[in-house]
Amino acid sequence: MLFSDLHVDFEYTPGNTNKCGKTTCCRADSGPPRHPSEAAGKWGDYLCDIPERTMDSMFDFIYKDVKPDFALWGGDSVTHDLES
Per the count of CB atoms within 10 A, which of 8, 31, 50, 68 is most buried? Predict the structure, then answer.
């Protein structure tokens, strides 16, 4: 099994805006959404890096149900937050 480019955002905040004008949104400093369609979801948002809960859930499923013999983690996994 190969994992690549997970881009987990440990500061992901569900309910905040996914359109904040910064490199990385869906965080506490992103502010509230202007429209409900711009609110970051509990499990993630297409316009943002994934929340920790999504990664944990994925790994839990893989460990319990897929049961791979081994796993490789490649690519880069840092958040896209280049402004910090």
Answer: 50
C-beta of residue 21 within 8 angstroms of C-beta of residue 38 = no
**Is 84 domain-assigned?**
no
Enumerate residues 6+ apart whose C-beta is below 8 A from 22: 30, 83
Would the pTM count as exceeding 0.70?
yes
Q: How many domains does the chain have?
A: 1
Any domain includes 79? no
pLDDT tens for the 84 residues of the chain, in order: 888 888 999 999 999 999 999 989 999 999 999 999 999 999 999 999 999 999 999 999 999 999 999 989 888 777 887 655
Is position 65 within any domain? Answer: yes
